[in-house]
Specification:
By secondary structure, the protein is mostly helical. The protein has 2 domains: about 1-65, Orthogonal Bundle (Arc Repressor Mutant, subunit A), CATH 1.10.10; about 75-215, Tetracycline Repressor, domain 2 (Orthogonal Bundle). About 75% of the residues lie in helices and about 0% in strands. It has helices at about 5-10, 10-40, 45-55, 55-65, 65-80, 85-90, 95-110, 115-125, 130-140, 140-160, 165-180, 180-185, 195-215. The longest helix has 28 residues, at about 10-40. The radius of gyration is 21 Å and the shape is globular. The model is unreliable at about 1-15 (pLDDT under 50).
């Protein structure tokens, strides 16, 4: 009987270890995001991130072997606060107008978030000198969101709820509608984000215009 006691206690150890591990990983991501927003990718070192996250370099490298990978995960984490694959699965069970409203509002909140605006400014400033940084940002952020919407539009096209023969063109049009001039004015510091009611009305107008183009012919 005595030999069975350690077996009962053993599972608690890895669970506790995972919680600590998750907390350290999140601390690294939070520190990296803040530093990237303030300084850009090129000016931030892995030592800076470890110091800001209050973790050892060994711990940092055990989670993220290089800065490029950490940068991409940071961008992905920001994006997944607003839209995930699970969200897209939920949207497919909704009417196109309702799903596009929900997706569009999340897209608006993402691209106008403090993190996205700060990172976008940095990407524009550094793109000429460091095109690799812009590619990392695009693949981890905008490209992933476009892929999500592509899946949604293809679903509605197959179901004959929308007529979208060219999803990529439709996605670009939808994104342009959502951004409008408002995104540029926010990035330039000339205007603030819309409040919730204004954002919903803006997205509804964009969705109505989009559906006039891609609605199935009755």
């Amino acid at each position: 009987m005595a030999s069975s006691a350690p077996k009962k206690k053993a599972p608690a150890l890895p669970k506790s270890g995972r919680r600590k591990d998750d907390a350290k990983r999140q601390a690294i991501l939070d520190a990296a995001r803040d530093l990237f927003m303030q300084c850009g990718l090129d000016a931030v070192s892995m030592d800076d991130i470890a110091r800001s996250a209050a973790v050892s370099k060994a711990t940092l490298y055990s989670h993220f072997p290089d800065k490029d990978g950490l940068f991409q995960v940071t961008i992905i984490e920001v994006c997944t606060r607003y839209t995930t694959e699970d969200d897209i699965a939920d949207y497919t069970r909704m009417k196109p107008a309702d799903a596009l409203q929900a997706f569009g509002l999340n897209l608006y909140q993402l691209i106008l978030s403090e993190e996205a605006v700060a990172l976008f400014r940095i990407m524009v400033a550094e793109s000429g000198r460091h095109p690799k940084i812009s590619r990392l940002f695009y693949e981890a952020g905008p490209r992933r969101v476009k892929d999500y919407m592509a899946g949604l539009l293809k679903h509605y096209h197959r179901q004959k709820l929308l007529r979208v023969p060219n999803p990529q063109a439709a996605i670009e049009q939808f994104g342009t509608l959502i951004k409008g001039e408002h995104h540029m004015r926010v990035v330039l510091g000339l205007e603030k984000r819309y409040n919730t009611a204004q954002a919903k009305a803006h997205v509804r107008s964009c969705v109505d215009g989009f559906l006039k183009i891609y609605a199935t012919k009755s």
